[in-house]
Amino acid sequence: MKITLVGPGGAGKTTIGALLAARLDVPFVDLDQRFGSRAGDISEFIERFGYGAYARENVDTYRAVLHAADRRSVVALSSGFMTHRWSVHPEYARLHRCIERSPTTFVLIPSLNYDRCVAEIVRRQLTRPFARSAAREEAVIRERFPIYVGLRARKIETMRPPAAVVEELSAAMKLMAQSWTRDAPAQRERRPVSGDDAPRVS
Known about the structure:
With about 200 residues, this protein is of the alpha/beta class. The protein has one domain (about 1-165, about 175-185): Rossmann fold (3-Layer(aba) Sandwich), CATH 3.40.50.300. The protein is about 55% helix and about 10% strand. A five-stranded parallel sheet has the order 2-3-1-4-5, with helices on both faces. Helix 1 (about 15-25) crosses helix 8 and helix 2 (about 30-40) packs across helix 4. The relative contact order is 0.16.
């Protein structure tokens, strides 16, 4: 299964995603890096074409990842991916629902405490070479915080060593795998025969 990591910039998606993928011995995909390979520098793209065009291209990049990536992989989404407007792309609403409802989607966030999260995200973002001003970084996380914590996916707080976060994610995946293995026979017995499952007559 694909493990999808969602969250604001500075939450640790890339660092933790790479460590988790190595732990599970599966490929790691960073959507921002894929966007860069596909369309160039994100900041320059937005400056040239606008945020709406970036969001559409971002969705198309994710769709390409879905088709190309190994079925067993860890994917770190762009910080704004789950905050786009529904109308940004014809496939976006469906993709958003699939990501949010997947049991293997995790929201990485420094803290579920609003003020603590805002302060930590601003602190982390300002250490990056491409950081916006402190006021802009704060405005972005204040706007997006309710969206991240409102997602149905499980929340993982990241104001602790990355190894501890990876351990929690690994434990969650192990429990999930055990549950699927235990429940699979019963689910197969209960599953109705659909057109795709019905025996075919040649």
